[in-house]
Target: Prefoldin subunit beta
Amino acid sequence: MSSEIPPQVQNQLAQLQQVQQQAQSLAMQKNQMSSMQKEIEMALEELEKLSDDAVVYRAVGDLQIQSNKEETVAKLKERLETLSLRLQSISRQEERISKRFTQLQEQLQQSMGTQGQ
Model:
């Protein structure tokens, strides 16, 4: 009996690890975008409390740029919509990765089962 892992099983293990890393990366991206989405929603809530002629400053890189409420609300809503679309895309990718992970796990279990016999 050989204790070496067959090349086919090594390949399946490598694929499984790669898919697992992709899933972790997607989860991190999703968390970051969800946090950004919540910050924008909070900013929009605060802007609603201001009068329409209030002076507002937006962060642009290291600068604070004077703006107005209407323009700032429009930009924040645009960013919110973009984030929402990206989150939907990530969710679809997560579903595909999850299915692929399950498929690879089953293939690996089958390979390991046939190796032990």
